[in-house]
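== Sequence, structure tokens ==
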Amino acid sequence: MFGPFEYLPHYLPPPSEKPFHRYRYQPYQRKRPFFCLCIPSRFGLPLLLLIWIITSFFFAIYSFLNKSAFFSTVPNRIMLNVFGTLNLLSALTCFYGFYVVYHKQRQSGINKYQRYVKITAVFNSMVIIDAAINCILFGIDKDDFVQQCEVSAAANIMLHFSQNNITSVVVEEIMTKSSNLFNCSQLFEIELGWSIGLLTVIAIFYVWWTIFLFRDLRYHFMEPQKMIGVPPAMAPYLYNSVLFRSPMVETPNLGGGPAGLAAARALRNENAFATITIFERNEHNGGTWYYTPETNDAPPFPSTNALEVDRTLQADRVNSPMYAHLHTNLPKSVMCFQDFPFSTETPDFPSHKDVFQYLESMAVKEDLKSYVRFSTMVEKVECKNNAWYVSVATTNNDNKKYTEKFDAVVVATGHYSVPYIPDFPGLDKLNENKRIQLLHSRDYREPTIYKDKDKNSLTYLKTILVIGGGSSAIDIARELSTVGRKVYQSIRTETELYRQTKPKDVIRVNQVERFVHDDETNTSCIELANGDILTGIDLVIFGTGYLYSFPFLPFQKDNLIKTGQKVFHLDHYMFYHQDPSLCFLGLPIRIVPFPLIQRQAIVMARYWCKKIPMLPYSISKKDDLADDDREERADFILGLEKEFDYNHRLGAWAEGWVEKNIDGWQSTNRLTGRLSEQWKENRKNALLLRKQYLGY
């Protein structure tokens, strides 16, 4: 599948090769042919262009100086100079294109595809001009060439000696001797041989180049809106929207949120991936952090199996689970990407609007938007004959559907679309009789809409039960306590998070046991695990989390996904065990997402461009996680210490460290080095700092 990526699965350097350096990044390189024109690789295209530049200058100089006997036979020297001028201009233009693509692009980071198409046109024009100059030779008869050559040579000799007052007898003697030395017939054969050889090379490269362009750019030429990156070779796949390509591999990337942007930056920064394209289902970037007051269609109650309840591909739109008054529970100094801090004007604990603007500014400053195909939903990704076929559909008025072929895939879809709602006894019946309003936190927006004013013409405050003890459930319970008559919160286990952020006016109750219905009185109540009964409940909000689901992967059933509590058969929470050309970003839970995703993306990019090998051990929670068949969500929940360790192991891996013991690895690299003590301290005390700053 990967062409030159022969070692992908679990390759370790042979004993004869030098081990990785322990303290600084030393990219791992496999032996490869010394001479390789892997168009349009970093070395192949510049080398080919350099050859043509030299060739063009050669013919241009000969055209102007008339140094060749061949050129001297051309009767119209004006046409000859025109050819020379055009050839020189082509060479200069090609050289400028080379400078723009391979120098300015590295400084500005802008998309190379459109420039690549232009430089390709220049290249083809230059080939035609060079071929035309050489083909002039084939229009000249050999006898005419020899005769003209001898006459021209004799005339020049006589002119030279006549200017120096040499007698005609001496001139004739010299001409007789020089005609024996100056063999015009042999000169013709030499120039003809060189011209035929050069034209043969031109023809081979031209045919090869045409085939290459047709193969790799056919989609872009057919559909101009797809002209986004350089010819395919590395395309990672992200769910709401991303496609990456390189000279070596083609990869689609699904998701225009934080993970998709991080993947695009990491792949581009390695300078080994020629094209980056992002498929974005919506018409904007930002992913989860794009707030909209609209909500999604209600999920089924209960909702326990992602394979049965996920309808995201059928929905016209999937709205973010962001609620109106959300603020992060992490300080901005901890939350940001390591090399792209929040602005100084941003509050220490940003709102969702601040985070969206942060992501938007990064997309603009890093020129990541030029890689995005907005309003494009990935419907299906399947592997056939060692290649990934990605079927997409536009979500705008075009309603176009098409399929593209890739070599690798990155899934950066996030996991906040498919609600998890436990199967409490009686819940399904409650969903039918509608005696109590049911809602998942995904579709909560702001508290005032749950305040009715149509009962007895008086303000009627609802009695609300929030189920769950996560950050969103705690936030929602606190907000509703300002408008509800009474707010309960059902928590199975009191965590440190709840102890530090417990809302003041919220009543904590035991775990829900079941929903009880009385058809005679047409009422329903809620029985708790300790036997208590909650009556008069108007609204139940489930803050019970989400299920993993990748509906665009037809092979996910009983393979990657069983019910959606976790993702199976992944190495290091990232690479698909059966085929590491499929990679997932941002799956672990209870982490600081941006910096961790950034490290995952760097590892992915360096692994795919063969700078680092696959680790010989697992850095997942369990050593046998890839083969673990137990459906335990806890396998993907990281605590503080596990999060720190995972970050460090990703950083060490990105820098070439392959030993399981990383105590000897020390690095202060901003992106991949060890986390600073200040960062870890702020991470540990984030809840306390938030309470001091926001008051809750």
DSSP finds 18 helices and 24 strands in the chain. The chain has a mean pLDDT of 76.
